[in-house]
Amino acid sequence: MDLTYSDSEQAFRAEAREWLEANVPDGLASGDTAEGFAQHLEWEKRLYEARWAVVSWPEAYGGREASLWEWLIFEEEYYRAGAPQRVTQNGIFLLAPTLFDVGTPEQQDRVLPRMAAAEDLWCQGWSEPGAGSDLAATKSRAVRDEAAGGWRLTGQKTWTTRGAFCTHMFGLFRTDPESERHRGLTYFMVPLDAAGVTVRGFERLDGDEGFAEVFLEDAFVPDDAVIGEVDAGWKVAMATTGSERGLTLRSPGRFLSAAERLIELAAERGEAATPLLRDRVARAWIDAEAYQLFTLEQVTTISEGGSPGARSSLNKIFWSELDVRLQETALDLLGPAAELDGPWSRGFLFALAGPIYAGTNEIQRNIVAERLLGLPRK
Amino acid sequence: MRFALTEDQAALRDAARELLARECPPAVVRKAWDGGAGASPVAAVWSKLAEMGVVGAAVPEEAGGLGLGACDVVPLLEEAGRVALPLPLVETAFVAGPLLAAAGDDGAVERLLAGDLLVACALDGAAEVPWAGDADLILVGERPGGPVSQIVGSHGGGATAGADGIARFGGALEPARSIDTARRLGVLVGSAASASGLVGGDDRGADSGPGEPPAAVEPLDAPNEACVLAWQRGALGTAGQLIGLSRALLAMTVTYAEERRQFGVPIGSFQAVKHQLANALLGVEFAAPTVLRAAWSLDSGAATVDRDVAMAKALASEAAERVAATALQAHGAIAYTTEYDLHLFAKRVWASARTWGDAEWQRARVAAALGLN
Fold it and tell me: Looking at residue B111, what is its pLDDT?
């Protein structure tokens, strides 16, 4: 047991804090609008130039080879400084771990540096009109084009976050037409400017054009667009959902800083912050602390060679529902002013997506019940 | 940074788990319902715990104990919770052990180490004193308005007598039936119910009858800081026990949900049951790290120890209550009987979730530490 950071970790924190305090931009528009996305890209490029974009990556790709502990520290400082949510996150936190695990050296060299530099922007092509929580119902298909040395993709992906602004998509396609469910799927990388690809953006609940549907009609991608083995896409995709970076989608730092802001809001609201509301503020802060401590345990496990496995589903349920409670508490503190378009109302609408994306919380609860508690599947 | 038990800590915990699983199955817990700590199989468990060093685990080495810290002892208390140990291990081993040593009460420490001293705690102006029916010594705690509570005195057993500051209690301690009969509850009657500040208890050794005349509370001749820490160990140790109780209840319920078939399938295959149990587990899994962190804060003398203990007890109390309610519901009618073992664990949860500060009170302490009040 040792809950202290080493001297070098503290120095890392100091360096991150100093740079962030001097550089974090104020008042960016939402990263899920065309205007805001461009502003966010400038910020992403500044992060990259100062080597803060992908701290845990190898130096050759623009990182600092930071440990998971340092990554946690960076995230704490990032959100503490009031820096915006990363529009590059789906590439950095979802595709990159897969490439590090099973990508070829050629793929890593080709894709990762441009991803880190925010030159290529990645969105995730998981969901389809008929395949949401039931991801194995994926129908989009890939047909072999032997002469051209690649694959032709046809189908439709949807709810693709920031799809209208991204340059590339990764997703699952059925390569074995006879296959069913989890078998016969392959993990592809697709440039969204390829012939046969059409992207249509549409508004999310919060009014931003944050969603897109992606139509593919005989879109060609070469063989080197395949990650891992052909027909093994399910395994490739799942290998990283429960991996160490499964915890990286929402770091504790984000909720710790939100809880601190909630305490400030309660102070600002004075008498309007009734004892009942203040109790809810304390709850939100306690839960953010609990999430931080749970994460420290997980990182300890990973650092010692273990795997969080299905425990990452506990993370996902907890942070997503904590976020909703926290934002709801802020709205209740604001009273009638809560309906104004502002940081808390936007935070609330954004939080409502949490229990849905990255595997609905109903699916996560099934995973917790079956794989952690050992309850029967049928 | 390393947030996990050391190999030694895990090994000690595993040894305690093994001993308790062997010596304290539900049949033994039931004996305590009838005969208290004096029932022979129950007394045997205590002797074995004393032999293994668990009872004296937190007593400093120079006073004859193992000199272990909260990070070592709290996992043992979780194990005591896992079997619903019907004995005041938190109060005796974790609250009293180090406190009596700090007070220099060698006689009491010696008895404690030998397994001959059971301790109860009369807390916070409450009339109910858990384990009073078995206790040789009653420590008296107060909650002086602010966020800090502490153990301030003792009665019986021979803690150091002080000349001044003796608070007198004009009522009597009578046995009362707890929903968890194993806890051998005593209730302060008469003016105790309205007593503010200090309340004192009666020394009720195994042979003494109910309703004996009250006697003085003797101030403990221990440094104030030791008294404050003793109270915090009580809250933290109880939080640890609640985690253990929760894990036992969950395990019992999962086993039952796999075996019990309705509509031709195990009831555990229904999502309505799965999701309830997943929620119950979620509470435990996020409370447990806060308990371990509070132990670390105690051991390392962190400035946030009071807040950290409060958070741990609040989360552990709520998590355990959710587990108990879910376990009962998932079982159905069979758990609504005393023939089935579940109630032995659930009742301990319901009783101990509200001693040493309930969730709401503890959360208010956290709020105060955050400047929210």
Answer: 94
The alpha-carbon gap from A184 to the nearest alpha carbon of chain B, in Å, equals 28
- Name A7's Cβ contacts closer than 8 Å, sequence gap at least 6: none
Check residue B217 and give its pLDDT. 57
Q: Which residues 332-371 of chain B have a CB within 8 Å of chain A?
A: 360, 363-364, 366-367, 370-371
What pLDDT digit, counting tens, does each position of B21-35 carry?
A: 999 999 999 999 888
Q: What ipTM does the predicted assembly reach?
A: 0.95
Residue of A69, A293, A361, A364 to mutate, interface with B, max B Cβ within 10 Å: A293
Q: What is the 3-state secondary structure (H, E, C) of chain B?
A: CECCCCHHHHHHHHHHHHHHHHHCCHHHHHHHHHHHHHCHHHHHHHHHHHHHCCCCCCCCHHHCCCCCCHHHHHHHHHHHHHCCCCCCHHHHHHHHHHHHHHCCCHHHHHHHHCCCCCEEEECCCCCEECCHHHCCEEEEEECCCCCCCEEEEEECCCCCCCCCCCCCCCCEEEECCCCCHHHCCEEEEHHHHHCCCCCCCCCCCCCCCCCCCCCCCEECCCCHHHHHHHHHHHHHHHHHHHHHHHHHHHHHHHHHHHHCEECCEEHHHCHHHHHHHHHHHHHHHHHHHHHHHHHHHHHHCCCCHHHHHHHHHHHHHHHHHHHHHHHHHHHCHHHHCCCCCHHHHHHHHHHHCCCCCCHHHHHHHHHHHCCCC
How far apart CA B245 and CA B331 sit, in angstroms, is 17
Report the amino acid identity of residue B199: V
Which of the following is catalytic: A178, A244, A268, A289? A244
Contacts of A378 in chain B (CB under 8 A): 265, 269
Q: In terms of pTM, does the model score above 0.80?
A: yes
Check residue B128 and give its pLDDT: 85
- Asked if residue B199 has pLDDT above 60, the reply is no
Residues B185/B174, Cβ–Cβ less than 8 Å: no
Nearest CA among A213, A201, A146 for reference residue A34: A201
pLDDT tens readout for residues A139-177: 999 999 999 999 999 999 999 999 999 999 999 999 999
pLDDT band at B42 (very low <50, low <70, confident <90, very high): very high
